[in-house]
Amino acid sequence: MRFKLPFAIFIVLAILLAVGLRRDPKLLPSALIDKPAPAIDLPLLHDPQQRLKVEGLRGQVWLLNVWASWCAPCRDELPVLMELAGKDGVVLYGLNYKDKSDAARTWLQRWGNPYRGSAVDSDGRVGIDYGVYGVPETFVIDGTGRIRYKHAGPISADIWRERLLPVVRSLQ
Amino acid sequence: MIPEIGVFSLVLALLVAVVQGSLPLAGAHWGVAGWIRLARPAAFGQFIFAAIALACLAWSFLDNDFSVLYVASNSHADLPAAYRFAAVWGGHEGSMLLWLCLLSAWTVAVALFSRQLPEAYVARVLAVMGWLSVGFLLFLLFLSNPFTRLMPPALQGRDLNPLLQDPGMVVHPPVLYMGYVGFSVAFAFAIAALLSGELNAAWARWSRPWTVAAWVFLTLGILMGSAWAYYVLGWGGWWFWDPVENASFMPWLVGTALIHSLAVTEQRGAFRSWTVLLAICTFSLSLLGTFLVRSGVLTSVHAFAVDPGRGLFILAFMVAVVGGSLLLFGWRAPRIGLGGRFGLLSRESLLLSNNVVLTVAAMSVLIGTLYPLALDVLSGQKISVGPPYFEAVFVPIMVPAIFLMGVGPIARWKHAPLPELARRLRWALAASCVAALLLPFTLPAGQRGWPAMSTFALLLAAWAVASAVAHAWQRLRGAPGGWLERARRQPSGWYGMLFAHAGIGVFIFGATMANSFESRQELRLNLGEQVALAGFEFRFEGIAPASGPNYDAQRATVQVTRHGQAVATLHPEKRVYRAQQMPLSQAAIDVGLTRDLFVALGEPAGDAAWTMRLHVKPFMAWIWAGCLLMAFGGLLAATDRRYRLGMAARKTRAIGATAALRPQEGA
Predict the structure, then answer these.
(1) Cβ atoms of residues B276 and B186 within 8 Å
(2) What is the nearest CA distance from A138 to chain B, expressed in angstroms?
(3) Which conformational region is residue A59 in: left (phi greater than 0), alpha (psi within -120 to 50 degrees), or beta?
(4) Domains of chain A by residue range
(5) A91 to chain B, minimum CA–CA distance in Å?
(6) Which of B184, B214, B265, B299 is exposed most, by the fewest CB atoms within 10 A?
(7) Residues B202/B653, Cβ–Cβ less than 8 Å
(8) Distance of CA B409 to the CA centre of its chain
């Protein structure tokens, strides 16, 4: 019997790995889920006189998409955001993370601008409050100003349909 | 055309591998000599086709063939040729191909250097390795084909990850994989022995040099990966207990246990089933490492592209290989029987305890690595296990291992009386205590004073070296013909053991000093400003634009002086790689015998000021030196001449007689 023990242990391990394989590794831990969204008070990219504030968006469900002109995957998700956010009527704001505003404006001009507005977080301070792990990341914030969902990595059409949109609809 | 040749040779390699896996195995079982003889030519054929495939991929990279998807995703026309070549293993598909090529290279090496072994046994070994190749070839052809075309072709490649554009990355993956894959030889020898039912001292003798050779490669591979993390990631650390690092460390720990266990099985015929189990476990952990890195099941800075299909395949393959061999073990092991008997205190018992300690250490790493996954699967919680866990659990487990390492070589086989051990080791113990107590007075204390734990670690380091010296001294002195004559007659395996054990001591010393007494400072420096750190003055002399073949950089000049005397001029860089616009901080390091000076550039802070991170790491180079000593020791042991000479004559010799004639050899 004791010689069969290694096999038994291995089978338990294999089952664990098999189940683990089915979960989404992109789903990074966020300590902020269901917590009030950290305050933002930042100038907007295209109109620095205006500022983006979390309190100002109370009462509606909105998405905060962290992006930067130096981030290659951000370009991959732009067409998806352009097409789907507009079509499904989702409120989308950007957080332009650790970027130069000139480069960021040129970039949006060139590839398209899906955002109602992008807050300029040039030193990444707000990004730190939000626990940004890598760019792009997308947060779903509900009408009471709480973070309800976080997606790390670029958004594809599938991810939009299967993950983000259902969360947004369930909150609306 | 070239990529199609690559695919075609992979298909041919698969067909040959199926033959290599099946007919020789059947031939060995039913005694068909013609089928047995097929094993060697099949191994050669498979290697040639695998090598052609690798050459085709390398050609596509050097030729900038961006119609190949893998090339387009991992290369760029501006990339220097050496990195275009290294980009062959810069991504998932290519590293799997490299894995396969190295596996077939090891197979050929076994085919070449096993002439003195029984034919049927070699046929079984090559067949087992053939089945491993079949698994990897199927994976390459169906799930991760590196030759997939991209239509229409890309005009320009996406570039190799800038982190991998480093000389260390050209050699690190092949060396590390040589280690991983090399354990497949020990595995195949064990499975072949289980299949034939002849698990004896001869089997252990045959596998020893192969196992040690793989261990040497793995040691060097881990060393290179760690050195790369130290100077490229620029975080100032050298080991992060990252899942991918753990994945290479676990086979190293169990492989170390295996080397020692094989020595006992060879010399005394003892713990045979345990040794077989270790051989299976070592290779299983290598496969697990591949699975963890390649399936993306763990979130890690290293993890590569995630594709559930691939993860599932590797898992299924692992279940077949590991599960199958453990079943075989469970079925055959009860018949192996016990080896020679030994006393409660003897070299066998000491080696067995060391084995258990190393295995437990590997299990603690495994638990730390997989615990976040288990917790996520069971409760949906997401946590990460970091260095505090590993330092709290792993380090104390290793303490007895280091202590036993000094005692083991001196103890006699079968029965080692305690008074004798104490007498032979008292000077080593006294010397290491004195060294550990005196060292703090001769070395500069760090920013946090001199913690007691560091003194204890220094005691262990000194013990590792002193016990090796004491052992050498006692074995060489008072011999007829003088000690030089006697030294010349000692087997190189014995010297290998001394070097490797002393290397552990050197490593512990370096790691303790570098971790406990590091001075570091993160600060803003104006142009021309000077700051003092650990007795050195760092002066920010200037910053200027610079450019490389495929990046633009800001290159700073930092002058380091000590009491006004120039020590070094460092040039840390902040690079932006053009193709991906990815910024990368290239730290500058001045390596010295007693300290490393490390400067990394942060961000510009105003007009003429930058944030910088400065480190002074005492005895950092000793970490690498310790690893190199271990690898050198392994090299000496693997090339011991007794493995090359007269094996055929010796393999029939009784186990006990071997041990009686050579009471002190090896281990």
Answers:
(1) no
(2) 18
(3) left
(4) 27-171
(5) 29
(6) B299
(7) no
(8) 24
Cα–Cα nearest to B644, from B270, B219, B213:
B213
Radius of gyration of chain A (CA): 19
- In this structure, are residues A36 and A145 in contact, taking their beta carbons and an 8 Å threshold? yes
CATH class of A27-171: alpha beta
From the list B625, B621, B620, B603, the residue with the least C-alpha distance to B612 is: B603
With bands split at pLDDT 50, 70 and 90, how would you rate the model's confidence at B48?
very high
Helix, strand, coil percent values for chain A (each to nearest 5): 40, 20, 40
Our CA angle for B377, B383, B384, nearest 5°, is: 115
Please report which helix (H) or strand (E) contains residue B627, including its range: helix B620-638
Report the residue from A3, A21, A69 with minimal CB separation from B311. A21
Number of H helices, E strands in chain B: 22, 10
| Cβ atoms within 10 Å of B104's Cβ, excluding its own | 31
Residue B416's nearest CA partner among B344, B355, B354 is B344
8 Å CB contact of B330 and A27: no
C-beta separation of B324 from B188 below 8 A: no
Residue B143, both tokens: 């799930």
Q: What's the pLDDT tens digit per position in B80-104?
A: 999 999 999 988 889 899 999 999 9
B307 compared with B161, residue with greater pLDDT: B161
Higher pLDDT, A70 or B268: B268
Which pair of structure tokens corresponds to residue B387? 């260095």
DSSP state of B319: I
**Close Cβ partners of B453 (under 8 Å, ≥ 6 residues apart):** B516
Q: How far apart are CA B299 and CA B294, in angstroms?
A: 11
Give the best residue of A5, A7, A30 to mutate against chain B (max B CB count within 10 A). Answer: A7
Minimum-distance CB partner of A7 among B323, B383, B384: B323
Mean pLDDT of chain B: 86
- What are the backbone dihedrals phi and psi of residue B603, each rounded to the nearest 5 degrees, phi first? -115, 155
- B481: pLDDT confidence band, cut at 50, 70 and 90? low
CB contact A14 to B (< 8 Å): yes
Query: Which range has the top average pLDDT, A115-129, B11-25, B230-244?
Result: B11-25
pLDDT category at B360 given cuts 50, 70, 90 is: very high
Report the alpha-carbon distance of residue A115 to residue B224 in Å, rounded. Answer: 45
Buried b (16+ CB within 10 A) or exposed e, B240-273: bbbbbbbbbbbbbbbbbbbbbbbbbbbbbbbbbb
Closest residue by Cα to residue B14 from B59, B57, B45, B40: B45
User: Which of B117, B129, B119 shows the shortest CA–CA distance to B17?
Assistant: B129
A25 confidence band (pLDDT: 50, 70, 90): very low
Q: What is the pTM of this model?
A: 0.81
- Average pLDDT, stretch A46-72? 86
> Are the CB atoms for B335 and B197 separated by under 8 Å?
yes
Dist CA B158 CA B91 (whole Å):
12
